[in-house]
Design brief:
Largest interface: A-B, 68 and 62 residues
Number of strands of chain A: 31
CATH topology of the largest domain in chain B: Ubiquitin-like (UB roll)
Order of helices and strands of chain B: EEHEEEHHHH
Distance between the termini of chain B: 39 Å
Oligomer: heterodimer
Distance between the termini of chain A: 63 Å
Number of helices of chain A: 18
Number of domains of chain B: 2
Structural class of chain B: alpha+beta
CATH architecture of the largest domain in chain B: Roll
Strand content of chain B: 15-25%
CATH class of the largest domain in chain A: Alpha Beta
CATH topology of the largest domain in chain A: Aldehyde Oxidoreductase, domain 4
Helix content of chain A: 25-40%
Radius of gyration of chain A: 28 Å
CATH superfamily of the largest domain in chain B: Beta-grasp domain
Helix content of chain B: 25-40%
CATH class of the largest domain in chain B: Alpha Beta
Number of helices of chain B: 5
CATH architecture of the largest domain in chain A: 2-Layer Sandwich
CATH superfamily of the largest domain in chain A: Aldehyde oxidase/xanthine dehydrogenase, molybdopterin binding domain
Largest sheet of chain A: 7 strands, mixed
Strand order of the largest sheet of chain A: 12-13-10-22-19-20-21
Strand content of chain A: 25-35%
Shape of chain B: globular
Largest sheet of chain B: 5 strands, mixed
């Protein structure tokens, strides 16, 4: 056992939070009207006792655990409470899970992003369970007048073996709630975990398969109005005026007006967005009626002025430039090509790369590009707001509630204490719901209407509203000597408007002469985090290029990578290498074994790739055949090292999802522009991966590990692009350089 | 506006709406059955799938005026206790990630199994290709359909 001071998370244990009384309310239609049998009513808990900010225990032994972070499909609503329950030593079947309210004093880091929920929550969740167990034991010790050291707790029961006494957690709960929060707690040895590491089903599974209201868009209240927005049709335009004469008179329409998301003098924070600051709003009784009125609302737009504004990134200021052009994809690619031949910012330089390339017997070079991508969460952006003069209630799906609360507070001029943000399940996030401008819009509309309002984006509003994955370009060069040794490596990359470079990642540290440099191009398109930001492009470029280098050298692509990693492990070049070479090699070795790498099935084309991001390692082998000018993906084998796996089957599901998502985006994903207007507005033109295009089989294997959990939502996503590209090359003899790959192939013929 | 008497999940529901209103919005905004989801509004994603009689249809393209006396079944009415073989299989395989598309997936899958009790992989793909899962749970959906097909009383 390890002893941990509870100081870090102490405020969450002593603070009286929203759990006092009967637990949290997710009001209105969230109360299911299920009729219970008398037996069920009798078995219901009579009284709940709050032990700490994360959990309460009922007189019948049931335990309610609050899941602090937003749930968007990564399954933290099951796996985070599992961590608490394990340290508490309670039977999982007696656990009820509820979504915690946003409570920045009680919980830390209530956000969905960066594959951080479990990693950052790990210690606090364990302490919540362990300290509650200690308080239950203390209560028993006091009741029986025996030393605490003589007591044990397991499976919801505290036992004193010497006197043969035992009591359930339910019996002890009322006394435990009055016990002092311990200054130190004993955390379990990893080998003693009995819930962590075993698969448990999604706690919301039954509600999902029966269509219960779970999502923000399912919020309906008495007197609620529906609102939709109309934004300028092109990036680079802003609203000049609206003609609402017809729209206002449409059936069911209550009002038409414009709102400004942010005031002109507001300094935007990191997750605030400058997309279409002023939008037209149509408010009415029902969604269909509002949709009809939107069609007849006339808006007049004018070009934006070019601006430079100060932005705040968690206390660090930066200047963001917004050009005034109407941008087009053809011009974007031309601009990237032009800037790529100019001087860039050197981010890392090891040895003498210029000499290495000068003295090389052979130089390999390849350039990779990728388009902007839209997140396309299946639940379009939406939020419920009920704002009165002195308080605001917001209900819906978002990833960074704590940060959005501050943005809203600034916009409404209302202290955060008066703002109540309730988190619903997210119908997908992938980064998009970190940028909660729609929450602010909903609040402003409710304030204006003096009524509860649900703001809903149509699919078209959603897809054409910005916050895209940036467009990228990377040129890789490798210098080989006469004996085919890799003596120099150069990456020059950039994007619109962000660079995807991670200069200290592999293969930095493994090559004597190394140069990494980058550039950026400004745009008025808005971008944002998209599952595994920047890694989701650079992994594909890097891992495709390494495949090409391995082939030129005449080495097996896995062995080639393992040799480089051996160098990085035993005799690393430079400092600051931000990966652990042995763990990187570990996933490659595991995927080699599990895929049957040396005994490939006849008729299949096979590619491999590996990547490290978000604190975890992933390697994948993809097998395909080529039919009717499209790949048919027969099997993906995936190895992941993300430390301890809390809920293995759910973790497998998440990794499978990353793989399917990656294949879809690599083959089809693109949002392109002509004169600022997105070419894709809905799923008829934005091709999404469908069942027949997904791998026929996916096998996920986790490296057994005692390392505390690292990230999992993102790491399976970036390498699959390259595993696919490398397998496609084996099948067709043509390398893939431009995403989306299927479009590249159509253009090449 | 016009009054329609609809047969939804075995009950008669009266609504007074514009005859062009798609069933999707009648269900969600007027009858408070929110399990049927809006995803695209143009019959490309399948999130709004319901049964019209025994057939899976996209409710975003089904005007209320076209329904008449035909029976509509939504995810809420697929079974009384969430124990339809497809729902049970979905739980057994623990299919969902975000879960938003899954009601539509389940409605498409249950209609498939009604007309083709033991579908091949190709038949499953063909029937399910109209339902997008952005989280990428397709391999599990396929597995769950096979699990449901092998259980009795589909």
């Amino acid at each position: 056992m390890s002893t941990v001071k509870t100081k870090i998370g102490r405020r969450s244990f002593i603070k009286s939070s929203a759990m006092a009384g009967g637990g949290m309310m997710l009001g209105f239609s969230w109360l299911a009207s299920c009729k219970m049998s008398p037996e069920e009513v009798n078995a219901l808990p009579k009284e709940w006792f709050k032990i700490n900010g994360y959990l309460k225990i009922a007189d019948n032994g049931q335990v309610t655990i609050l899941s602090p972070n937003p749930e968007g499909g990564q399954n933290v609503k099951t796996s985070m409470p599992m961590i608490v329950a394990d340290e508490l030593d309670v039977d999982w079947k007696n656990v009820i899970v509820e979504q915690a309210p946003l409570d920045t004093a009680a919980f830390t880091l209530q956000f969905l992003g960066g594959s951080q929920s479990i990693r950052r929550g790990w210690e606090g969740l364990r302490m919540a369970g362990a300290s509650a167990k200690a308080m239950l034991i203390a209560a028993a010790a006091e009741a029986w007048q025996v030393p605490m050291e003589e007591l044990t707790a397991a499976n919801g029961i505290v036992t004193h073996a010497a006197s043969d006494k035992s009591a359930t957690y339910g019996e002890l709960a009322s006394a435990a709630a009055t016990m002092k929060v311990p200054d130190e707690v004993q955390l379990k040895d990893i080998k003693d975990f009995n819930i962590i590491g075993t698969s448990h089903k999604n706690v919301d599974g039954h509600k999902i398969v029966t269509g219960k209201p779970l999502f923000g868009v399912d919020t309906y209240t008495e007197g609620m109005l529906t609102a939709m927005i109309v934004h300028p049709p092109a990036f680079g335009l802003k609203l000049k005026s609206i003609d609402d004469s017809e729209a206002k008179n449409m059936p069911g329409i209550k009002d038409v007006f414009t709102i400004k998301v942010f005031n002109d003098d507001y300094e935007k924070a990191f997750f605030d967005t400058r997309t279409f600051n002023e939008v037209a709003v149509v408010v009415g009784k029902s969604t269909w009626e509002v949709m009809q009125a939107k069609k007849v609302l006339k808006i007049e737009c004018e070009p934006i002025e070019s601006t430079t504004e100060s932005r705040d990134r968690f206390g660090r200021k930066w200047q963001e430039h917004t050009p005034s052009d109407l941008e087009s994809t053809s011009k974007h690619y031309a601009e990237m090509e032009a800037i790529a031949s100019k001087k860039a910012t050197v981010k890392r330089r090891d040895g003498n790369p210029e000499n290495a390339f000068k003295n090389a017997a052979k130089v390999l070079e390849a350039t990779y590009t990728a388009p902007f991508l839209a997140h396309n969460c299946m639940e379009p952006m939406n939020f419920f707001a009920d704002v009165s003069q002195d308080k605001a209630l917001l209900i819906g799906p978002l990833q960074k509630p704590e940060l959005t609360e501050q943005t809203l507070s600034a916009r409404l001029g209302m202290p955060v204490e008066n703002i109540d943000i309730q988190m619903t399940r997210l119908g997908g996030g992938y980064g998009r719901r970190s940028y909660a401008h729609w929450l602010v819009e909903a609040a402003l509309i409710s304030q204006k209407m003096k009524a509860p309002v649900k703001l809903v984006y149509s699919r078209e509003d959603d897809m054409t509203n910005g916050i895209y994955r940036p467009s990228y370009r990377a040129t890789y060069r490798a210098a080989l000597d006469a004996d085919n040794n890799l003596i120099g490596f150069h990456v020059k990359t950039g994007g619109i408007p962000q660079s995807p470079l991670h200069e200290n990642r592999f293969p930095a540290g493994a090559i004597e002469n190394y140069l990494a440099e980058d550039w950026t191009i400004d745009t008025n398109l808005t971008v944002g985090s998209f599952r595994a930001p920047s890694s989701n492009f650079i992994a594909c470029a890097e891992q495709s290029f390494l495949d090409e280098v391995a082939e030129a050298i005449g080495k097996d692509p896995i062995d080639f990578r393992l040799e480089l990693l051996e160098r990085a492990q035993n005799d690393p070049v430079g400092e600051n290498n931000d990966y652990e070479a042995h763990r990187y090699a570990g996933v490659l070795k595991l995927v080699k074994e599990k895929s049957g790498w040396v005994n490939k099935e006849e008729g299949l084309s096979r590619g491999v790739a590996a990547y490290f991001c978000h604190n975890s390692y992933a390697a994948q082998v993809l097998d395909l055949t080529w039919e009717n000018n499209e790949p048919v993906i027969k099997k993906v084998t995936c190895a992941i090292d993300c430390g301890i796996v809390v809920n293995p089957d759910a973790a497998t599901n998440l990794a499978e999802g990353g793989i399917v998502d990656g294949i879809g985006n690599a083959l089809y994903g693109e949002i392109s522009f002509k004169d600022g207007v997105p070419d894709q507005r809905n799923f008829d033109t934005y091709r999404m991966i469908r069942m027949s295009e997904a791998p026929k089989e996916i096998n996920v294997h986790f490296v057994e590990s005692d390392i505390h959990p690292t990230g999992l939502g993102e790491p399976s996503f970036p390498p699959i692009f390259a595993a696919l590209a490398n397998a496609m090359y084996k099948s067709t003899g043509k390398r893939s350089y431009k995403q989306p790959f299927l479009k590249e192939r159509e253009l090449l013929g | 506006m016009a009054i329609f008497n609809l047969n939804i999940n075995g009950e008669t529901k009266e609504v007074d709406v514009d005859p062009a209103t798609p069933m999707l919005w009648v269900l969600r905004d007027h009858i408070n059955l929110v399990g049927t989801k809006y995803g695209c509004g143009i019959a490309q994603c399948g999130a709004c799938t319901v049964h019209l009689g025994d057939n899976a249809v996209r409710s975003c393209q089904l005007p209320v005026s076209a329904v008449g006396k035909q029976k509509i079944t939504t995810i809420e009415g697929l079974s009384e206790h969430g124990d339809h073989p497809v729902q049970k299989a979905w739980l057994e395989i623990d299919v969902p990630q975000c879960g938003y598309c899954q009601a539509g997936q389940i409605m498409s899958a249950s209609a498939l199994l009604k007309r083709t009790p033991n579908p091949s992989d190709e038949e499953i793909e063909s029937a399910m290709n109209g339902n997008i899962c952005r989280c990428g749970t397709y391999t599990r959906i396929k597995k769950a359909i096979k699990t449901a097909a092998s259980s009795e009383n589909v």
